[in-house]
Design brief:
Length: 478
């Protein structure tokens, strides 16, 4: 295993070499390698010359330089792009934090309990330098506000020592260039429902005379970052995850509306394919004897396992709907199969429906959610990866040709048709503003009440179909 140590550097010529020597000498868990990734953020005091000499003496060290000063967040973002280890640890180059505590930081990750570990200066560490009262109050105040908005109970949001599984860290888009990185990564980790642990660390803080750079203005900006990423759900970097996963995460009221439509069709044993990060499963698994949340993408599988780690009636399973071998052992097990936002992505929905039919008990129900209306297909669909939209008659005929009898079909979200047409067909947009989605979600209580009064089809189509007693003629011929 390998630990990537990400070191942003700016104007630290008096301490940077000592810091790097400590990092190289720091103990690591058994059989773990280390790689150092340094990013000089356009230092002007001779720091980069020291780093170049040090890198020449240590050829395994990776050194990068920004051509202009962009801030800590930008330097960390550059380092993340270059990280090749299993885990990534952020280390400032200022001797305030003690690299000898790496094993303590790594333990919850290596034990399998955590996805991220934060070193806290305010838990009971071995030693902590007594420093400025108001600076401490600012840190703790920011932590309190961040906790209120992301519903965590961190003790030190602004800590430098943050360690992540690298695959997860790479999948989180980092937008902040300066010290806003800290609240941004906390807000996004909370919304992604990562398992976060804190461990006590020592802290040898500096005064401003000794070179400390963060100030009260950065505290104000941190508050704005917390508010921004509370309002906006910018959780997945490209190319991680279908766009709809991110979109639905930020629309809980709309999800609840959808689930209210799906819930009457569910039996005691349910298979959901394409379960994503559990948006539907978390709302529908209650009172089921067995709920299998199936997903093919490794990052989403990881999110599902974290979310339902202690939910005994939920089983998380790797399943690619286009891979016949993944369905082994599932024959005739389920009362209900949920196929939500899947058929519009696959190359050929026919074989997928045949496999889903095989997992149902006699008389079991398939519930399908697909985008409605081919006339709506446009730039948003292409951006999301949709290969098609469906008409009601077309979707029903598809299900019936693969051994299902459609019992109910209806469209949903008629208010969404007009903005979708405007964004996707008229403006050619590749995405809808997350703020617009947030505003829509906050007014779902109104839209759901007038949905049935509108005369045009809705944006989504739901079909509930019973497994036929006998295969259709087309299946028999096959």
């Amino acid at each position: 295993m390998k630990l990537s140590i990400l070191i942003p550097v700016y104007n630290e010529r008096t301490v940077v070499e000592r810091c790097l020597l400590q990092v190289l000498a720091a103990p690591l868990p058994e059989n773990m390698e280390r790689e150092l990734i340094l990013v000089d953020d356009c230092s002007t005091d001779g720091t980069f010359a020291i780093l170049e000499r040090f890198a020449a003496e240590h050829p395994d060290l990776k050194l990068y330089r920004h051509e202009r000063n962009r801030g800590k967040g930008a330097a960390v973002r550059t380092a993340i792009e270059q990280a090749g280890g299993d885990f990534s640890l952020i280390q400032d180059a200022d001797l305030e934090y003690d690299p000898s505590e790496y094993p303590k930081l790594m333990k919850p990750l290596l034990d399998g309990h955590a996805d991220a570990v934060f070193g806290s200066r305010y838990l009971s560490g071995e030693q902590r330098r007594v420093l400025l009262f108001w600076h401490t109050m600012l840190n703790q105040g920011l932590t309190l506000i961040a906790n209120m908005f992301c519903n965590l109970n961190l003790t030190d949001m602004e800590t430098c020592y943050k360690v992540f599984r690298t695959d997860l860290l790479k999948s989180i888009p980092i937008r902040s260039d300066r010290f806003g990185f800290e609240p941004e990564i906390v807000m996004k980790s909370a919304k992604r429902k990562l398992r976060i642990y804190e461990v006590p660390i020592s802290y040898h803080g500096r005064t401003y005379e000794e070179g400390k750079k963060i100030g009260w203005k950065d505290g104000v900006k941190a508050l704005l970052v917390v508010l921004r990423f509370w309002l906006i759900d910018d959780l997945y970097a490209q190319p991680y995850g279908r766009g709809v996963i991110d979109t639905l995460t930020g629309t809980p009221q709309y999800l609840s509306w959808l689930c209210g439509k799906l819930r009457p069709h569910l039996g005691d044993t349910v298979l959901e394919i394409g379960a994503g990060i559990g948006n539907f499963a978390g709302r529908l698994m209650s009172r089921r004897l067995l709920y299998v949340a199936a997903e093919a993408d490794p990052l989403r599988l990881h999110a599902l396992r974290n979310r339902f780690l202690r939910t005994p009636n939920v089983e998380v399973r790797r399943l690619d709907p286009e891979a016949a071998e993944d369905f082994a052992g599932l024959g005739g097990r389920f009362d209900t199969v949920l196929c939500l936002n899947v058929l519009e992505y696959v190359e050929d929905p026919g074989p997928v429906l045949d496999r889903l039919r095989g997992t149902l008990k006699a008389g079991g129900t398939l519930v399908v959610l697909v985008p409605n209306g081919p006339f709506l297909y446009g730039s948003l669909d292409r951006s999301l990866g949709h290969k098609r939209r469906y008409r009601r008659a077309q979707a029903a005929a598809l299900l019936e040709s693969h051994g299902f009898q459609v019992e109910k079909a209806y469209s949903l979200n008629k208010p969404g048709v007009v903005p979708w047409l405007a964004y996707s067909r008229l403006l050619g947009s590749r995405r809808i503003s997350k703020l617009v989605l947030k505003l829509f979600d906050k007014t779902v209580w109104f839209w759901r009440r007038i949905d049935g009064l509108m005369p045009w089809p809705g944006l989504s189509l739901i079909l509930a179909a019973r497994k036929s007693a006998f295969p259709t003629a087309s299946q028999s011929a096959g």
